[in-house]
Design a protein that fits this description.
Distance between the termini: 30 Å
Number of helices: 22
Low-confidence stretches: 1-8
CATH architecture of the largest domain: Alpha-Beta Barrel
Number of strands: 29
CATH topology of the largest domain: TIM Barrel
Mean pLDDT: 94
Helix content: 25-40%
CATH class of the largest domain: Alpha Beta
Strand order of the largest sheet: 12-18-17-16-13-15
Shape: globular
Strand content: 15-25%
Number of domains: 4
Length: about 775
């Protein structure tokens, strides 16, 4: 549902903006194209044009005057980062998160919240992965849409980022993401498309990098042709902070706002460009018109200072954290811990009392409070267990004989040992990428040594992205807690003690080793280029087609209960390319406690005319079930869900044939399947030129007549009568080779190799006739 967070522009407001455009000087128009300082838009007092205030960040309000992210910001709720929030797979919860952020933004007078981040997780080493949702655009797009709808329902704007193909920190201001159009549209632009169509965000933030050699901030194809004209975006395109390259080219491309301001340097260049005719003033007016529209809409929504509801936001942060944490291993039912049983529990790891709870960089939040796991365990009411604690390692992740000795001592004395480990702040952040999947050596060594003296070990990870786990087969329990925000410590205790049944599932694949990852050979790139040679095979799509076993697959997560899948039904098994498909199945909680299951719908194209992923996620639903309760889950697939992007035809299309509907608990745990036949009636034709092949031409009715004539000419030369068996076999082979070569031959070669029988004029006349027909069919 598209959230109408502001009222539609009235005729009066439109008239007012047009009057202002007439009254503004060129200098004033140019000034509106850049910010005033770090966080405000330019105001013009003489015409009553106010300023708009914007600030970071995606999981909490951060207000600083400058760019020193280490300076204390105002106090605000630090919610879990996107990596954890995505693991909830819960649209309703993400909407509530957006509402809470909108309320806090209103409290501080923030009119645009700079988030969410929806870049695809191309590599697990990307330093900013904690700030992004998923390796899959459906998960990213749908959860981000819910978040945006929540924020904007409070009258606060959003800025979805970073557009586009911004998938590394290495040389992020210079690198060119070299990626083909099909991959861009199916993977890297897909989340933005979903968001625009479901949520119409206030603004889209253009990234630092280039795409195929052109900076995102001056890429007309990305900003105007795709985002505005095709997706239907009607908001503001703003730069990432400092991302502008050539401001004049940016205006021509449709870039509205440069942030931060530069003291008027680019404004002067804009004025000069208009006066010399390099820039048409009408193009500048388009930019000014969009800026004024946003300014007045946000100003109309601006409310007075609202009180913070810190307690409610703390509880919401705790709910998101506990619902997003992913139980990855639970051998011998070591979890949940029975708090009423008399036992000794060893808690090891500095993260237990000084948690890693958020990322670093522009999203750094100054929390209103900060829970830690050790305190949360000690504060459990009516507990029968006794806790012993030791650091095990220092803040840098280093350990030594003394720290290890104390850790082993309390582990030997305890019935269960809980080790908190992961990635320190210095290992992942905005601004740099990780070099390895490894956790600090001290963390791994600590876990290995403890596992040698006791088998009852539970590891809790606090990290923003996947890590290698050399000790995985030596521990009974493993909880991926990600970066849980200010309530993360209490949420970990909730899950381990069974107060909350874990229901999170991975929104990204955890690889066994780095050289298993899709982009291993080309990431992060060289010579200022990053080659996206893996194409559409990102994340689970790659592991599936290469038949590589991951450490933990996409969509995976355990529960303290069991779920049964049954009774898959399709409303039709013969499907036309204009029809929707309704899919239903039953999910039953077969265990003894309440639980939530994330039901995942995948689609497999069995007979595609080109290489496609083995399966692709098309939908998901989170179902809350009481013990032995059963519910029906319904999905609906639209024609677009069956299609891929054809670079040959420059459109989305599907091929007739069989598809398989797959319903499962993860990408590697498919419980139900059924096939459906798709009949594609629409004909797709390309625009042909002199470099098109004879085979290309055969796809069009007019071209097919021409191709048949050439085939007959070729076949008439082959005489099989009177040949011996060996000679006949050689002649047939020669004929097949000639026909295959002919079908792949560009038309310009036909002219030169026909000996004058086929002239250039004949070919050009044929191309004109075919292309006119194609254009008439496309209208």
């Amino acid at each position: 549902m598209l959230m109408m967070w502001v009222s539609s522009s009235t005729n009066a407001q439109t008239d007012k903006i047009e009057q202002l455009i007439q009254q503004l000087t060129i200098e004033e128009k140019a000034s509106l194209c850049a910010g005033a300082g770090m966080w405000h838009t330019q105001k013009i007092d003489r015409l009553g044009i106010p300023s708009v205030f914007m600030t970071d960040g995606p999981h909490g309000i951060r207000i600083n005057e400058g760019t020193n992210f280490t300076e204390p910001s105002v106090k605000a709720t630090c919610f879990p980062t996107a990596a954890l929030a995505a693991s909830t797979w819960n649209r309703d919860l993400l909407f509530k998160l957006g509402q809470a952020l909108g309320d806090e933004a209103n409290h501080y007078g923030v009119q645009i919240l700079l988030g969410p981040g929806v870049n695809i997780k191309r590599s697990p080493l990307e330093g900013r992965n904690f700030e992004y949702f998923s390796e899959d655009p459906i998960v990213s797009g749908q959860l981000a849409s819910a978040y945006i709808n929540g924020v904007q329902s409070k009258g606060v704007g959003t800025s979805v980022k970073h557009y586009a193909a911004n998938n590394q920190e290495f040389e992020r201001m210079l690198i060119s993401s070299e990626v083909d159009e099909r991959t861009l549209r199916e993977i890297y632009l897909k989340a933005f498309e979903i968001i625009v169509k479901k949520s119409q965000p206030t603004s889209v933030m253009c990234a630092y990098n280039k795409v195929n050699g052109t900076y995102c901030t001056e890429n007309k194809w990305l900003i105007t042709d795709i985002l505005r004209d095709e997706f239907g975006f009607n908001g503001l395109c703003v730069t990432d902070w400092g991302a502008v390259n050539n401001r004049i080219e940016g205006i021509k491309a449709g870039l509205d706002l440069q942030m931060p301001g530069d003291g008027g340097m680019n404004a002067s260049k804009i004025v000069e460009a208009v006066k010399t005719g390099l820039l048409d003033e009408k193009e500048l007016d388009k930019i000014v018109r969009r800026n004024l529209s946003l300014i007045f809409k946000l100003s109309a929504n601006k409310s007075g200072v609202q009180p913070l509801n810190e307690q409610a936001d703390q509880l919401l942060a705790r709910q998101i954290a506990s619902e997003g944490m992913v139980l990855l291993k639970n051998e011998n039912n070591i979890l949940p811990i029975n708090k009423k049983k008399k036992q000794k529990i060893a808690v090891v790891g500095t993260f237990a009392k000084s948690p890693r709870f958020q990322g670093a960089g522009s999203s750094l939040v100054n929390p209103t409070r900060l829970d830690n796991f050790l305190d949360a365990m000690n504060q459990v009411e009516n507990k029968q267990f006794i806790i012993q604690y030791t650091d095990g390692y220092n803040r840098l992740g280093e350990t030594n004989d003394s720290l290890l000795k104390e850790a082993l001592k309390i582990a030997k004395e305890s019935d269960i040992t809980i080790v908190l480990a992961g990635l320190p702040d210095s290992y992942e952040s905005e601004g740099f990428d990780r070099l390895t999947l490894n956790m600090p050596e001290g963390h791994n060594k600590l876990i290995e040594k403890i596992a040698e003296v006791t088998s009852k070990v539970v590891v809790v990870l606090q990290n923003g992205s996947p890590v290698s786990m050399p000790w995985i087969n030596k521990v009974d329990g493993l909880l991926e807690a990600y970066l849980g925000g200010q309530a993360g410590g209490s949420a970990i205790a909730d899950v381990l003690l069974g107060e909350v049944n874990p229901s999170g599932k991975l929104a990204e694949t955890f690889p066994q080793k780095l050289n298993d990852t899709p982009s291993y050979l080309t990431w992060p790139g060289e010579n200022r280029k990053s080659l996206y040679n893996e194409g559409v095979f990102v994340g689970y799509r790659y592991y599936d087609i290469k038949e590589i076993e991951p450490l933990f697959p996409f969509g995976y997560g355990l529960s303290y209960t069991r779920f049964e899948y049954s009774d898959l039904k399709l409303d039709k098994t013969e499907l036309a390319d204009t029809e929707n498909l309704i899919i239903q199945c039953k999910i039953r909680n077969a265990g003894n406690c309440d639980g939530k299951e994330i039901v995942q719908l995948y689609l497999r194209d069995i007979e595609s005319g080109l290489i496609r992923p083995v399966k692709e996620l098309k939908g998901f639903e989170k179902v809350d079930l009481k013990p032995r309760e059963e519910k029906v889950v319904t999905f609906e697939l639209e024609p677009r869900d069956f299609q891929y992007y054809s670079t040959k035809n420059h459109c989305w299309k599907a091929d007739s044939g069989q598809f398989e509907i797959l319903v499962g608990s993860s990408s590697r745990d498919i419980r139900l399947s059924q096939k459906v036949n798709l009949t594609v009636k629409q004909k797709y034709y390309q625009i042909y030129d002199i470099n098109s092949t004879i085979g290309d031409l055969a796809e069009h009715p007019f071209g097919a007549e021409f191709v048949e004539g050439i085939k007959k000419m070729s076949q008439s030369r082959v005489k099989l009568e009177g040949l011996s068996g060996v000679e006949k076999e050689a002649a047939i082979k020669q004929q097949k080779m000639s026909e295959a070569s002919m079908m792949e031959m560009p038309l310009k070669k036909v002219i030169t190799l026909s000996g004058g029988r086929i002239s250039e004029n004949m070919i050009m006349d044929l191309l004109t006739r075919i292309n006119e027909d194609v254009k008439s069919r496309q209208k």
